[in-house]
Amino acid sequence: MFHAIEIAPGVLHYPGLLDRRAQEALRDEIRAALAAAPPFTPRMPRTGKPFSVRMSNCGPLGWVSDAEGGYRYQPRHPETGAPWPPIPARLLAAWAALAPGAPPPEACLINLYVAEARMALHQDRDEAELSAPVVSLSLGDKALFRVGGLTRGDPTRSFRLASGDAMTLGGPARLAFHGIDRIYSGSSTLLAESGRINLTMRRVTKG
Ligand code: MD6
Ligand code: FE
């Protein structure tokens, strides 16, 4: 089995869920998905301010954001118009292990970080199904993850996510604020280009 650290109620960290070989295999599967669904730069609703993280998706639905339409899920890539590629089986296996009993994931958001990229404190609340957790897997450089409470001003705690680590936000923490404060550039050899890949699987529609 695997070892979980309960950071806070509903916030579970699984260090080293994927060994190096599994990380390499997943990296290659994500590379193939990105060839079919090239990374795009999401933009903030209304202001159009670009994210520093580039994104893509796999699964029947993908998360996108732009000035006009705001945050949403849609079945097609915003630039190519193609359906998203399927979620790799090894990711579905991680979902089955870490979200037992939940309906299958419909979206896997692929977040791509360069050394300077950050993810501002946010809630994942664009899903109709909030009983399922969000399951996250990280590849490449370590990152400093911050998680707080249900209100933006609540106290937060921070911990590092390393390559091969999984994390879930569920139950009382499903709507907790969280973000990425920094990337530890050069801390992993998994990705030739350095940087970090984070994969978050979500159930979007009511299961
Ligand atoms: C990241 N993760 O690790 C950003 N959201 O790059 C998230 O925003 C996230 O890791 C919901 C649940 C788990 C996560
Ligand atoms: Fe999130």
H and E string: EEHEEEHEEEEEEEE
Counted by DSSP, the helix tally is 2
Instruction: Work out the count of structural domains.
Output: 1
The percent of residues in helical segments reads 10-25%
CATH architecture: Sandwich
Low-confidence stretches: none
Spatial ordering of strands, largest sheet = 1-2-11-8-13-6-3
Please give the radius of gyration in angstroms. Answer: 16 Å
Q: Give the CATH topology.
A: Jelly Rolls
Number of strands: 13
CATH superfamily: Alpha-ketoglutarate-dependent dioxygenase AlkB-like
Mean pLDDT: 98
Percent of sequence in beta strands: 25-35%
The main β sheet shows up as: 7 strands, antiparallel
Shape: globular
The CATH class assignment is Mainly Beta
Task: Give every kind of bound small molecule, once each.
Answer: N-[(3-hydroxypyridin-2-yl)carbonyl]glycine, fe (iii) ion
Gap between N and C termini, in Å?
A: 27 Å
- Specify the structural class: alpha+beta
Structure description:
The chain has helices at 20-36, 89-98; strands spanning 5-8, 11-14, 54-58, 62-64, 72-74, 107-113, 119-122, 134-140, 142-147, 157-161, 166-169, 178-184, 196-202. The chain is 13% helix and 32% strand. It has one domain (5-202): Alpha-ketoglutarate-dependent dioxygenase AlkB-like (Jelly Rolls, Sandwich). 39% of the residues are buried. The chain contains 2 helices and 13 strands; from the N terminus they run E-E-H-E-E-E-H-E-E-E-E-E-E-E-E. The chain has 207 residues and is of the alpha+beta class.
